[in-house]
Amino acid sequence: MVVSELSGQDVNRIFRALADSTRRDILRRTLVMDVSVSQLADSYLMSFAAVQKHVAVLEEARLVTKEARGRERMVRGNLERIRQAQRLLDRFEEVWRARIDRLDILLAEGDPAPPDT
User: Fold this and answer.
1) Is the pTM of this model over 0.85?
2) H-type helices in 7-111, by residue range?
3) What does the pLDDT look like over 52-100, one tens digit per residue?
4) Is 82 helix (H, G, I), strand (E, B) or coil?
5) Are the C-beta atoms of residues 74 and 30 closer than 8 Å to each other?
6) Which of 12, 31, 97, 116 has the fewest Cβ atoms surrounding its Cβ within 10 A?
7) What is the rounded CA–CA span in Å between residue 112 and residue 116?
8) What is the Cα–Cα distance from 89 to 95, expressed in whole angstroms?
9) Do the beta carbons of residue 20 and residue 54 sit within 8 Å?
10) Which helix (H) or strand (E) holds 4?
11) Where does the pLDDT of residue 113 fall: very low under 50, low under 70, confident under 90, or very high at 90 and above?
12) What is the SS3 assignment for 97?
């Protein structure tokens, strides 16, 4: 079960990280290929320091990893962490669907038979 994979704190970090459109875009880019922090900074209308902070939030959530390559810090998306988050969302969907199914049953049981005319 996902609960054993992700603690409540992990879940909070993931969703906090994904709540920002810039961080979602950084994650998307880094899942396609490794990108340096400098390259990322060139892609946004914000300071290098601001991009570094976004990357740090993603790194704290373990959605990306950073690796030193020479003088550059390369950022790589963590596909396994994305899969963990997806399994969590799948579990939520299962719970919601089960509730809707139960509601459908209750509504069907409560419907009076149509009158014969």
Assistant:
1) no
2) 8-18, 21-32, 37-42, 48-60, 79-110
3) 999 999 999 999 999 999 999 999 999 999 999 999 999 988 989 888 8
4) helix
5) no
6) 116
7) 12
8) 10
9) yes
10) helix 2-5
11) low
12) helix
Fold classified for 8-80: Arc Repressor Mutant, subunit A (1.10.10)
Residue 77's CB is within 10 A of a number of other CB atoms, namely 21
Round to whole Å and give the CA distance between 95 and 60. Answer: 28
CB-CB contact of 34 with 74 (8 Å): yes
Residue type, 88: L
Up-side HSE of residue 3: CA atoms within 13 Å toward CB?
Answer: 1
Dihedral angle sign, alpha carbons of residues 69, 76, 63, 26: positive
Cβ neighbours for 64, distance < 8 A, ≥ 6 positions apart: 26, 27, 30, 55, 58, 75, 76, 77, 78
